[in-house]
Amino acid sequence: MQPQQDPPAPAPVAGRPPGERDTRVAVDAVLLPSVFSGTPVAVVALDRDGAVTALTPVAERLLGCAEADLVGRPLLEHLHHQHPDGRVVPPADSPILAALEQARPAAGDGVFVRGDGSALGLAWAFAPTVLARTLVGGVLTFSDTAAQHAEAARQRRHVAAVEEANVRLALLAEVARVLGETDDVVAGLRALADLVVPVLADWVTVDVLAEDGTSLERVALTHRDPARRAATAARVGPLPPLRPGMTSRLAQVLHGATPQHQRMPPPDQLRSLVVDDLAAERVALGLELGASEWITAPLRARGRTLGAITLVRADGSRPYRAEDLDFAADLAARAGTLLDTTRVLSRQVSRAEQMQRALLPDLTARIGPLELAGLYQPASDLAQVGGDWYDAFVLPDESTGLVIGDVAGHDLHAATRMGAIRHKLRALAGDRIAPPSDVVARLDRVLQRFAPDDLATAVYARLDTTPRGPRLQWSNAGHPPPLLLTGGRPPRLLDDVVDLPLGVADLDRTDAEVHLGGPGGQGGAAPVTLVLYSDGLVERPGESLTAGLRRLLDAGADLAGVPLADVGPELLARLDPTGLDDIAVLTARLGPPGAG
């Protein structure tokens, strides 16, 4: 048996004072793999001569050689550094070996040639291992630069995908906000198209089917080029009608198909695309605005197709992908919901307004010397009906009754009660000739007995003739005061008396009166206009009724001489009411003596 020899002593680190006691500790190389086995880069442990003492599995795969074949052999015999011109760098000139010999860290990258002759791009870093100020070896880490570049590219693609997803989410959120805030469906669809361009398309069209399911209209066309937007206005409007048997992609979507993706064919194949009138229009538009491909998605709601949105890209280098098809479908679904909801509410408000108008009287244009005009504007809150009403009728003594009223509430109950109260007041007024206060008091008692939960305000006025000229008597049950307009005089509010609303308590009612025209009257020879109105004309949130009445006086300052039919609309325009409440206006004009 040969006597066991001690391993060679490690070389001292440069600069160690002579004669200093050696305190180095032997390092077992087999410990190194366990330290570095979890790292994703290749790791090779070297002794002080550059021989391999251990390496990780990643290093084995990258070097194409098993650990058993490399341990104990100089690494640079298997991995040669290469000059940019292809010449192999001698081991003596290797920067890795130089760093090991000088016990200093180093890093770099370049092309290496493996033992089998294959080239490999590596980024490397070396750190010496020094114990007790003595060099015992080093650790070399390296990674495949091609793999790094590929991973970096993958990370960039991933980040781009995430950013694109965020853009889509932000766009959907903005679309939802815009569609949720609009009451005008066409304006909402145009705003949607503006949001999509240029994020997802170079230009966008939105086409809507009429409720007959045949008539088709383009309501929006937006192009990313501002110079072309003006030219696209001519392309908005009616399109060829949808007919059975049409097979173009747009027709298929309108007939109920799922979103369609289509590419513009070469010029010599365009004829094959023109299969119906809708396809012909689409191809002509694509040639005019530029089109490489498009996605057409249906505007659908409650199982019905209401139209289609088309996203078009003119640049073929940015093709649509599957996720774009899904996004277009989501976008179209939101637009379809808006369109459907608007149509449903439009039908409801139309029916509500028809009902409301049906409950109002068929106002005649003239009763005796009085010229009459009525105006009703529903609240902007769609599908609600209100309790505002006006009325004018001839009494048994040939005098004229004028009424404005408002039943509390904005629902079907308020509207139906309004109709009942209007007819009851007519009956009570015509039952016997009496002052307005008597009619209002009897109406109040009827309401308290038969409809104790109802609350209403009203002004009932009676115009008759006296030796002093026309006389207006009125009783006010909690309603805004009438407005009197007389040529040559400031507007006046008839606020002489205001009692409690109807339905509050059984109490006496009071009358007020004013003479209009004739000897000692308000108007003399000038026409006199009486304006009865509901509170929606003058009330605003946060503003007192007094302020609203001041605005009414200002608005009526020069309306005494305008045509009677224009007085109500002009007051609406000048006062600009909020639309939170419905508005009824009754105007009555008494001309000069002999008129009418």
From TrEMBL:
<feature type="region of interest" description="Disordered">
    <location>
        <begin position="1"/>
        <end position="21"/>
    </location>
</feature>
<dbReference type="Pfam" id="PF00989">
    <property type="entry name" value="PAS"/>
</dbReference>
<protein>
    <submittedName>
        <fullName>PAS domain-containing protein</fullName>
    </submittedName>
</protein>
<dbReference type="InterPro" id="IPR000014">
    <property type="entry name" value="PAS"/>
</dbReference>
<dbReference type="InterPro" id="IPR003018">
    <property type="entry name" value="GAF"/>
</dbReference>
<dbReference type="InterPro" id="IPR029016">
    <property type="entry name" value="GAF-like_dom_sf"/>
</dbReference>
<dbReference type="InterPro" id="IPR013767">
    <property type="entry name" value="PAS_fold"/>
</dbReference>
<dbReference type="GO" id="GO:0016791">
    <property type="term" value="F:phosphatase activity"/>
</dbReference>
<dbReference type="GO" id="GO:0006355">
    <property type="term" value="P:regulation of DNA-templated transcription"/>
</dbReference>
<dbReference type="InterPro" id="IPR035965">
    <property type="entry name" value="PAS-like_dom_sf"/>
</dbReference>
<dbReference type="Pfam" id="PF01590">
    <property type="entry name" value="GAF"/>
</dbReference>
<feature type="domain" description="PAS">
    <location>
        <begin position="28"/>
        <end position="80"/>
    </location>
</feature>
<feature type="compositionally biased region" description="Pro residues">
    <location>
        <begin position="1"/>
        <end position="11"/>
    </location>
</feature>
<dbReference type="Pfam" id="PF07228">
    <property type="entry name" value="SpoIIE"/>
</dbReference>
<dbReference type="InterPro" id="IPR001932">
    <property type="entry name" value="PPM-type_phosphatase-like_dom"/>
</dbReference>
<dbReference type="InterPro" id="IPR052016">
    <property type="entry name" value="Bact_Sigma-Reg"/>
</dbReference>
<keyword id="KW-0378">Hydrolase</keyword>
<dbReference type="InterPro" id="IPR036457">
    <property type="entry name" value="PPM-type-like_dom_sf"/>
</dbReference>
